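Hi U.,

Before I forget, here's the chain from the pilot set. I'm dumping it here mostly so it's searchable later in email.
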Amino acid sequence: DMLRQVVKSGTAKKAFRPGYDRAGKTGTTNEYVDAWFVGFTPHHIIAVWIGTDGTFSLGDKETGGKAALPAWIEIVDALPRNPAGKVLKTELRTIFGGQVNGRNDPAGGE
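Structure:
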């Protein structure tokens, strides 16, 4: 219930949807270097991490609830509400400095 409260009335309250069971935890490192939200529903567990793999700040007040939570909400809102045991297939995309899965990404800017 503690992690449900984070979504219902805490740092992740923007993820609250009446009638949906959602819970999770926001996180932020010192100096706003990393921010994340790890959340779950009865059918999905999703973690969103925002960071630079270095010591550079994301910016003032770029917390898990501000930087990572919006991406989590967009992902979860796009998923079927009740997948009835179906396995969702998706391509894992890891983006580093304009590269996607080790290849240059034309949309990545470099």
